[in-house]
Amino acid sequence: MTAGAAEELQRVFKTLADPTRVRILRLLEQQELIVGEMMDILGMAQSRVSRHLAILREAGLLSDRRDGTFVAYRLVLPEAGPWRDAWVLARESLANDPTAAKDDMLLAKTLATRKARAVSGRSFFDEVGPEWDALRTVFGDDLLRARATATLVQPRLRVADIGTGTGVLALELAELGLDVVAVDQSAGMLDAAREKWSAIADQTQGRVDFCDGDAHALPIEDESVDAAFAHMVLHSLAEPERAIAEMFRIVRPGGQVVLVDFLDHDHGWMEQELGLVWLGFDPVMLREWIDAAGFETPRIQSYPSEGKADLPESFVASARKPASA
């Protein structure tokens, strides 16, 4: 080995010996990120992240691209040589690392937030409005709603339907004799829901109150409903875990939450055609969010796509708020 090769190898080992730099490289191999996004994922100050980026850039491991007032970074590796060989070894060693798994979860959250800012869910759903019922027939809604409502059918309960859309689930719950607070942030969706409700209100046992509101900050008082539903809603939210925490806040002690959505999948067409921010959810991550909110005894049941070849598996998750909460 020549002196130059030995020095290069020493530089490789020194650069990759720092766990923070390895975490940064692992993130930037997956996605182009700006400094602020890396700060959120790593939980570190700007000065510390920037110092590590400077070292990695000096080593020739990063490309940078100016995006307005920000600079976005991405991992670049030579096609062969000690840098690539050492990185492959470092990456493989993190396959089952809990910190890496947490970084992946926070990366997914960061990308969802970025996407929600770029294309607001409000504009998409306002645009489709009354046509949403036809669009979402691909969800297999009839069967999924039946599975969700089967978990809670006692008449005269007061429940919340978060992200009610055109009110399909809210109206079905009212027909079962429940009183429903139906929340959505899309004016177009709420207009369509109110129109449908006005046509059946006189013949329905329960009642529906519609209100404009964000799932991340629900316009509902603390501990004021017996249950909360989020039916095919979480995948359209920037921060689903915040919505679950809000559902915990509004549910009475002993009350229930019911979540219906897709399991994680790679059906990219659903982003463009149905406005999805998240391509489904990993059950482990979902259970962590439910537990973190304060609910107990979560149950997550998965279901196949019922013969729809290009539709991912779905789940119905339920949990209870402790009676002593």
Index terms:
325 residues, alpha/beta, Arc Repressor Mutant, subunit A, Rossmann fold, 2 domains, seven-stranded mixed sheet, three-stranded antiparallel sheet, 14 helices, 10 strands, 46% helix, elongated
CATH-assigned homologous superfamily of the largest domain: Vaccinia Virus protein VP39
> What's the level 1 CATH class of the largest domain?
Alpha Beta
Total number of distinct structural domains: 2
Mean pLDDT: 82
Question: Tally of extended strands?
Answer: 10
In words, what does this structure look like?
The chain is of the alpha/beta class and 325 residues long. The chain starts with a helix and ends in a 5-residue tail after the last strand. It is built from 14 helices and ten strands. The mean pLDDT is 82. 46% of the residues lie in helices and 20% in strands. The protein has helices at 3-16, 19-30, 35-42, 46-58, 82-93, 98-118, 121-128, 132-135, 141-149, 168-175, 187-200, 240-250, 269-274, 283-293; strands spanning 33-34, 62-67, 70-75, 158-162, 179-184, 208-212, 225-231, 251-262, 296-303, 314-320. The chain is elongated and about 90 Å long. Helix 12 runs parallel beside helix 14 (283-293). It folds into two domains: 3-103, Arc Repressor Mutant, subunit A; 121-320, Rossmann fold (3-Layer(aba) Sandwich). The strands form two sheets. A seven-stranded mixed β-sheet has the order 6-5-4-7-8-10-9, sandwiched between helices.
